[in-house]
């Protein structure tokens, strides 16, 4: 008994679903035929709900205004003031569309110009920064070379002073005996040499 009830419920739901599908399919098949019309402007139709009206508008745009690439390119290149002067019957919608295209084109060109200017400015700043870094690097190398030269001259001068001092205190004889006279003379020579150097 339970199996019989379940099968009957299942078959009833399948039948209802098929009827719904068939009616819906027929409704959408007949709808595009109604949409194709000579008047491209949508006007409110009495008795059609808002949802269906929006669907009709969408379909109407797709059917009535097929996109022609050549016509769009002509519109993009045409100046709206020239088109308005040539065709006085030009509708407000078309005029607004041309003006919007002209504004977009002007904005796009302004953005492109701004990007180019920004890139030029960045390139100029980059080259200026590199030149400044090179200049600082050269100054640092010159400073290091000057310091090295000063240190070398100082070391050379100290070495010459050492050699002169060494010649002043020359050892004549080898031995371990020292006399007070030799020591006194050596000290005097050392003091005199130091005074001369200073």
From TrEMBL:
From the UniProt entry, list the residue stretches annotated as the region Disordered. Answer: 34-145
Instruction: Specify one Pfam family.
Output: DDRGK
Keywords attached to this Swiss-Prot or TrEMBL record, sorted alphabetically, are: Membrane, Transmembrane, Transmembrane helix
| Statement: the UniProt record of this protein carries the keyword Transmembrane | yes
Composition-biased stretches, type Basic residues, lie in 50-60
Origin superkingdom? Eukaryota
Bias (Basic and acidic residues) occurs at 34-45, 97-145
Q: What is this protein called?
A: ACYPI000688 protein
Q: Which organism is it from?
A: Acyrthosiphon pisum (Pea aphid)
